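sorry for the late reply, my laptop died twice this morning and i had to redo everyting from scratch. anyway the thing you sent over, i finally got around to it. pasting the sequence first so we're on the same page, its 209 residues, then the predicted structure underneath. double check i copied it right bc i was rushing
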Amino acid sequence: MKTLASMALLAAIAVGNASVLNFDDLDAAGQGGAYLIGSSYDGFNISGDLGVMTNSYYNNGFANSATFPSAPNAAYNGYGETEIDFTLQNTTANGKANGNLSTFGFGGLDASFWAEQDSSASFSSQSITVEGWLNGNIVGSSSMILGASFAHLNGFAGQIDTLKIKNDGNTTWWVIDNLSTDAAVPEPTSMAALGLGVAALLRRRAKKA
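ok and here's the structure:
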């Protein structure tokens, strides 16, 4: 019974835990060092061409000596996309999409411009702006000037349903890593249902004992 209770507690805690998108589970090395991720990654829907590449591809192909914050991979804005959007699709109890967006928090990310010989080039995005949107309204924004080395961009408080990463407005490239998000805290009704389910399991275990 103690084991079951511990598992229930861990499950409840995990619901609200932060998640870091570091792109390291993708086989960029097996794809020639870099490729476009597609329309989804780690539960997020992605609007725009988001790519992933290995640290060795970035350094060997462009004479850099950078170290990605989370090796071996980092992400970049595809064909120099001016905006990449992240959303989470809300689902019904049976796991099917219901057409609405789920909310999540943005905790921050690490970013640099795409360098050549560890320096800015004509294709290097000089800045990025990260915006949080909720129900069609902007509710948070953070900007930073980019350099050849990765620096951290802080997130913002509150829940959002769309995260937008924008470059400096030109067809230029940035590199990101360790994009930190978190899931929305369950509504009281959801937590109550979880509690009832755990209680039922505990009673069943007690009867068998």
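The chain has three helices and 14 strands.
thats about all i looked at so far, will dig more tmrw
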